[in-house]
Amino acid sequence: MATTPDRLYIDYDDRDVYKKLADELDLFKGTTTKEQFLFTMAIGFKHRTRIPLVKKENWFLKKDMKPDDEALVNAVALADARSVDILSDAGAVFKIAEEYAHAGLAILHDKVGTGQFGTFSKRFEGELSDILQHPSLKDMQHDE
């Protein structure tokens, strides 16, 4: 019988990269490991790039996830697997999230290392703005 995982992992070598980014990027300053993980997972997912972990290192506990965090991780796994069946296997869901986060961290680190982060952050801001302007979301927005 498979056990339900109680934590999410990063690759052992990524710990120093996360620390470096937390020290250097305003975007990461004051954020939790969970928030950093979810951000890098989103970057990896946006680029449709997964990289398997070589040596797992504990990063944060599942109990620290809010319902919105779990929904995001589940949505990424669902979009990746293209089958609702994936949601019955928490280990597989976490593995997908971990591999996207690993890839996303590499992408982010590369952008920072080449001095492109300013450009990256502006592009990211523009992409978010475009998403929010999408007609399907405008229908959901209402003035208060």
Please specify the SSE layout and strand pairing:
Layout: E1 7-11, H1 14-24, H2 33-46, E2 56-61, H3 67-81, H4 90-113, H5 117-132, H6 135-138
Antiparallel strand pairs: 1-2
Describe the structure.
The chain is globular. By secondary structure, the chain is mostly helical. A two-stranded antiparallel sheet has the order 1-2. It has one domain. Helix 2 (33-46) crosses helix 4 (90-113). The protein has 6 helices and 2 strands; from the N terminus they run βααβαααα. The model is unreliable at 140-144 (pLDDT under 50). Helix content is 58%, strand content 8%.
Brief sketch in words of this structure:
The chain has six helices and two strands, in the order βααβαααα. It has 144 residues and is mainly α.
Q: Quick one: how many beta strands?
A: 2
Poorly predicted ranges: 140-144
Amount of helix: 55-70%
Number of domains: 1
Broad shape: globular
Largest beta-sheet details: 2 strands, antiparallel
* Beta-strand percent range: 5-15%
Mean pLDDT over all positions: 84
Compute the number of helices. Answer: 6
The topology string of helices and strands comes to EHHEHHHH
What characteristics describe this protein?
144 residues, two-stranded antiparallel sheet, globular, disordered C terminus, mainly alpha, 6 helices, single chain
